[in-house]
TrEMBL record:
<dbReference type="GO" id="GO:0033539">
    <property type="term" value="P:fatty acid beta-oxidation using acyl-CoA dehydrogenase"/>
</dbReference>
<dbReference type="InterPro" id="IPR050741">
    <property type="entry name" value="Acyl-CoA_dehydrogenase"/>
</dbReference>
<keyword id="KW-0560">Oxidoreductase</keyword>
<dbReference type="InterPro" id="IPR023922">
    <property type="entry name" value="S04_starv_induced_SfnB"/>
</dbReference>
<dbReference type="InterPro" id="IPR009100">
    <property type="entry name" value="AcylCoA_DH/oxidase_NM_dom_sf"/>
</dbReference>
<comment type="similarity">
    <text>Belongs to the HpaH/HsaA monooxygenase family.</text>
</comment>
<keyword id="KW-0285">Flavoprotein</keyword>
<feature type="domain" description="Acyl-CoA dehydrogenase C-terminal">
    <location>
        <begin position="244"/>
        <end position="377"/>
    </location>
</feature>
<dbReference type="Pfam" id="PF02771">
    <property type="entry name" value="Acyl-CoA_dh_N"/>
</dbReference>
<dbReference type="GO" id="GO:0050660">
    <property type="term" value="F:flavin adenine dinucleotide binding"/>
</dbReference>
<dbReference type="InterPro" id="IPR037069">
    <property type="entry name" value="AcylCoA_DH/ox_N_sf"/>
</dbReference>
<protein>
    <submittedName>
        <fullName>Sulfur acquisition oxidoreductase, SfnB family</fullName>
        <ecNumber>1.-.-.-</ecNumber>
    </submittedName>
</protein>
<dbReference type="Pfam" id="PF08028">
    <property type="entry name" value="Acyl-CoA_dh_2"/>
</dbReference>
<dbReference type="Pfam" id="PF02770">
    <property type="entry name" value="Acyl-CoA_dh_M"/>
</dbReference>
<dbReference type="InterPro" id="IPR046373">
    <property type="entry name" value="Acyl-CoA_Oxase/DH_mid-dom_sf"/>
</dbReference>
<dbReference type="GO" id="GO:0003995">
    <property type="term" value="F:acyl-CoA dehydrogenase activity"/>
</dbReference>
<dbReference type="InterPro" id="IPR036250">
    <property type="entry name" value="AcylCo_DH-like_C"/>
</dbReference>
Length: 402
């Protein structure tokens, strides 16, 4: 399937600070929520919503102030993603790799690259991703090649899980150069030899466009290649930033699952006969379960905020200690955001009752979205990293997935 992507021309709001960013996210979320269930059920790609999203200026909020952006805190960035994700889990995830690319440029781009790409991001250009590949030995292995050709390079390979590429103006591509070093090539979506294939068939996050991208002898200029592997060979905030955004997506999904459960129980569910009450909302065991989920969600939100603060410290002064502390803080948050998003999506049906499973309600999208997204990297290894850090004083690995 070929999807037409509008040009980056047109008015884009210039957000100046954290307060404006949060207000813009809340305003957009109110509108995005209205069509979220239908978009999921019928897999309607959110093209109009993404135009509105990027025109709001929110896709430029992590551009540093020195380059004209708002340079918002990571606490704010996470809350913006959680707010949009609460309206539509897919819309919350689509810009994740865009913000990841901004961070790659911030920590590893040359001055010329920062000026060039940050200006275009602030003008409304969306970055997608083509990082992961199928059929490799591990999720971190890459086979897509960047081969020297005169003054530039050629790219050949195939990617999958390319979230956002379907909607992007530029696609950052993880490639291996002639020396076996991983680089990031920023490729124009409409470049000759680029094929973006809408073949994502996951049962959750259905409109993220996380399908395939094929590169056939694609030409890139030398200044379109940004060092990538080196961002993990030294302490940088790149990995913690990526993981923080994933945690925020899960928080958004959990919030709406719990909210929808409450609405259904208030308006449609029946009390269990042994409760001896007239209304489901007065059933003491139901009330207790809502209390439990609310506490767990609040705990996850608190850890997400603490993690954002730790990432801010690492971004301002990246050392082995600050980056490790940020990675652990984010891992702790991701443990709870993973668990509460899955729990809220599942408990919804237990508390709301059989009526909630009717397909016209489409309430299963919350669990489907949480289950799909939380598979991004295994939470069991986050427990391991946290335990090793506190028990054995061992810093977590720097590879972006902790």
């Amino acid at each position: 399937m070929t999807t037409h992507i509008k040009s980056a021309g047109g008015p884009v709001v210039r957000i100046l600070d954290d307060i404006q960013a949060l207000a813009a996210a809340r305003a957009l979320a109110a509108g995005f929520a209205k069509g979220a269930s239908l978009r999921d059920r019928e897999r309607q790609l959110p093209l109009a919503e993404l135009e509105q999203f990027s025109r709001s200026g929110l896709w430029g909020i992590s551009v540093p102030r020195a380059y004209g952006g708002a340079g918002v805190s990571h606490v704010t960035l996470a809350e913006v993603i959680a707010t949009i994700g609460s309206a539509d889990g897919s819309l919350g995830q689509i810009p994740q790799n865009h913000f990841y690319a901004v961070e790659v440029l911030r920590v590893n781009g040359s001055e010329a690259q920062k000026r060039f790409y940050f200006e275009r991001i602030l003008a409304g250009e969306r970055f997608g991703n083509a990082l992961a590949e199928l059929g490799t030995r591990t999720s971190q292995e890459r086979r897509t090649r960047l081969s020297k050709d005169g003054d530039g390079f050629r790219i050949n390979g195939r990617k999958f899980y390319a979230t956002g590429a379907l909607y992007a103006h530029r696609i950052p591509v993880s490639v291996i150069d002639d020396d076996g070093v991983q680089q990031l090539a920023i490729v124009k979506r409409d470049a000759a030899g680029v094929s973006v294939i809408d073949d994502w068939s996951g049962f959750g996050q259905r409109t993220t466009g996380s399908g395939s991208v094929v590169f056939e002898n694609v030409w890139v200029e030398a200044d379109e290649v940004v060092p990538f592997q080196s961002a993990f060979e030294r302490p940088t905030s790149l990995g913690p930033v990526a993981q923080l955004l994933h945690a925020a997506i899960d928080i958004g999904i959990a919030r709406t699952a719990l909210q929808d459960a409450a609405v259904f129980v208030r308006t449609r569910s029946r009390a269990w006969i042994d409760s001896k009450v007239e209304r489901a909302i007065d059933d003491p065991l139901t009330v207790r379960e809502f209390g439990d989920l609310s506490v767990r969600l609040s705990a996850a939100e608190a850890l997400l905020e603490l993690a954002g603060g730790a990432v801010d410290i690492a971004a301002q002064a990246a050392t082995a200690d600050t980056v490790a502390a940020a990675s652990i803080a984010v891992a702790e948050a991701r443990v709870l955001t993973t668990e509460v998003s899955l729990a809220a999506g599942s408990k919804l049906f237990e508390l709301a009752g059989t009526q909630a499973t009717l397909s016209e309600n489409n309430l299963d999208r919350h669990w489907r979205n949480a289950r799909t997204h939380t598979l991004h990297d295994p939470v069991r290894w986050k427990y391991h990293a946290v335990g090793n850090y506190y028990l054995n004083d061992k810093n977590p690995p720097r590879h972006g997935a902790i």
